[in-house]
Amino acid sequence: MDYFLQQLINGVTLGAIYGLVAIGYTMVYGIIGMINFAHGEIYMIGAFIAVISFLAVGLLGITWVPLAVVLVLILTMLFTAVYGWTVERLAYRPLRGSVRLAPLISAIGMSIFLQNYVQLVQGARVKPLPPVMSDVIVLADQAGGFRVSVSALQLLILALTVALMIGFTQVIARTSLGRAQRACEQDMKMASLLGIDVDRTISLTFVMGAALAGVAGVMVTMYYGVVDFYIGFLAGIKAFTAAVLGGIGSLPGAMLGGLLIGLIEAFWSAYFSVEYKDVATFVILVLVLIFRPTGLLGRPDLEKV
Amino acid sequence: MAGLVALLLTLPLVGLRTVEVQSRLTIEPHLAEVAMTAFLVFLGRLGLTVAASGLPGPVLLAALATLGAGWFLPFPTEALRVLALAGAAVVAIRTLWALYRRQDPRSQQERDRSLDLWGARLQDATRLIGPVAVALALALPFLPFTDRAVLDLGILLLTYIMLGWGLNIVVGLAGLLDLGYVAFYAVGAYSYALLAQTFGFSFWLCLPLAGLLASLAGLTLGFPVLRLRGDYFAIVTLGFGEIVRIILLNWGDLTGGPNGIAGIPRPSFFGIADFTATPASGQVAFHQMFGLQYSPLHRIIFLYYLILALALLVNLFTMRIRRLPLGRAWEALREDDIACTALGINRTTIKLAAFAIAAMFGGIAGSFFATRQGFISPESFSFIESAIILAIVVLGGMGSQIGVVIATLLVIGLPEVFRDLAQYRMLSFGAGMVLIMLWRPRGLLSHREPTILLHPRKSATQQHAEAVGAP
To answer: Looking at residues B26-48, what average pLDDT do you find?
Structure first.
């Protein structure tokens, strides 16, 4: 039972990270109907920037952990947001309204480019956070009361995810930007006729998605303590699976899907085999798509002629 | 004014962006590099803006000067030099383009159409070029400059051309986006390696078997997922590709895990002669049979002809099947699958056929790959391979056979020729994919000729003349 509970906690933590990345996929897919293949790389870049800014913050002599974490989060969100914006501007915007495959190929190209760019400038080796820093950052604090350990870090990840989720749901539901986004999702041409700057809205969607992926990158850096340039691909596919599982285009769906994927992965590694955990994820993806292509919380997709 | 805004926008962005260039595990600052990168990008942006606002001439000169400077002056790092060179080249091309455009009163659409027309002419010319190219390919091993390296490059190119043509059936004709084609390639390679090693089957028996197994794999995957449409289908095939790779990686007993399988038997000359210097007793070696001096090149030349024949087989098959009801149904499905259903075409069966046939060719190419390398491991079958093959098909212009050849020469041939720039290879590969998509979103040769017409076929030039003549 303890073991189960521990896996539950691990799975939920992992799921929160996937969920944050999945939101980026689901928002972009919702608005322009394309799979943003480079999104996984944005997340990877977020993780790298997190490592770097942890080091930078450490060099600046900020040792008070909460402040350091907040600073790192802000820096990472800022930079990944800029990356998201640039990717959209360079690789996707010129292709809007083109054949359906074009942006997808361009996205795959972008993803290869970003991966090799990071490999080139940062080296191919796995980057561990130096233990001195991780001691400061990772509060390996066994919260009392539980027999299983919940590190403060895991709590932080969960709290942050919940806060971000609430924040983003509010942004989508209440602000004029959110209204513009929903309008674009329904009918882009009509939205632009009604005076919504569609390009700007889509840009901002990419920026928001990238910032969230950046947060996920910070989390994964703190959680595992290692980063390499290849993590983006697999995490990207899993997050996409999460988005599809939850029903693509739906924010709570993405979060739910992320949690489910995280749980499945944790339990699969715990009770079956670690090697095949990725296979499990993909099999679930296939099964969901076959039996419920709209996902758990998605709207039915009508065939239009 | 607009240029100023763009400049203000890009300057902080690029300046800030590259801040992350600098870390090992302790940070070592490379602020100078960041500043220079920002400065270079600033210059580039400035150049483009000035060129766009009507002064392409001086900008062109400046860009060329930078190009020269990048070539000769010392730069603090190699990466910066590459950036300077690439940036200057892009600016130079853009300004040249701008200069050209100023003399050219046509609109963007017209220019696109004229490019399409070029593509169409090229495709028309394929009827002439095709046999010439085949003859050239046939003669290649006997040309004076041909050595081992050229033949190896030829084999590599032909392998990718074959894969490209195979995938073209699914992507180009049936319009299904398959991101996991490499899975079938892997199935073919492993089935040949395992059959040959475990049961001692010969290459010639394994080749069809590998194709069969791969197409069975295609059927197995295709049956459940072909009901899906568009992007969902793409992502499932991607997942399938990864599943195959992970299984190959982890099923150590059968596949050797990450170590792969080594010592895969080489093919013999149609089972009657070997390519060894000293044949086993009672057998004849290839060079003895034909009374030639022994040379290790014989095997390479044989492999070259083998893959040439296989690739041409795929091509021939595709060209023929396009005229059959099955091929017509594929293309109809690509254009409008709802209309197809309304016309009584069974979507799933038709798609399944495309999928299985393409998988079969992938498997055959895979077993060729295994026998050529003599060694296979899961590393050769990663997603990036699928992406490369797909890139070949899409960049070439989906459904265009000659486009696949041209794209292969670009995508595989160029990086092989520029092996010196090894570390920038994949980087420029990714960038190139984006750029070609931006330049020609439908692929290099995107002109689509109707495969069936009510009235007799006319050449593309005539069609164009009519289209221009009739307003």
So the answer is: 60
> By the CB < 8 Å criterion, does B25 face chain A?
yes
> Residue B252 contacts by C-beta under 8 Å, 6 or more apart in sequence?
none
Q: What is the mean pLDDT of chain A?
A: 77
- Considering only alpha carbons, which residue of chain A is nearest residue B425? A116
SS3 state of residue B61: helix
Classify domain A2-291 at the CATH topology level.
ABC transporter involved in vitamin B12 uptake, BtuC (1.10.3470)
Is B242 in contact with A237 (Cβ distance < 8 A)? yes
Residue B6 contacts A where some CB pair is shorter than 8 Å: no
Domain boundaries, chain B: 2-102, 144-439
Rounded Cα distance between B44 and A170, Å, is: 41
Q: How far is CA A91 from the centre of its chain?
A: 20
Which residue of chain A has the CA closest to B178? A101
Q: Hey, is the C-beta of B379 within 8 angstroms of any chain A C-beta?
A: no
- Nearest by CB to residue A106, choosing from B79, B230, B438, is B438
pLDDT at B18 over 60: no
B contacts of A240 (beta carbons < 8 Å): 235
CB–CB contacts below 8 A, A to B? 161
pLDDT in tens, B112-167: 666 666 666 666 666 666 677 777 777 776 766 667 777 888 888 888 888 888 88
In sequence order, the 6+-apart residues with CB closer than 8 A to the CB of A200 are none
- Best of B181, B254, B434 to disrupt the A interface (most A CBs within 10 Å) is B434
- Domain boundaries along the sequence of chain A: 2-291
For residues A16-27, b (16+ Cβ closer than 10 Å) or e, as one string? Answer: bbbbbbbbbbbb
| Integer Cα distance of B280 and A65 in angstroms | 73
DSSP character string of B312-366: HHHHHHHHHHTTSHHHHHHHHHHH-HHHHHHTT--HHHHHHHHHHHHHHHHHHHH
Give B182-228 pLDDT, tens digit per residue: 888 888 888 888 888 777 777 777 888 888 888 888 888 887 777 77
Smallest CA–CA distance, residue A33 to chain B, in Å, is 9
Say which residues have a Cβ less than 8 Å from residue B256's Cβ, sequence separation at least 6. B262, B377
Of the candidates A79, A121, A78, A125, the one whose C-alpha atom is nearest the C-alpha of residue A230 is: A125
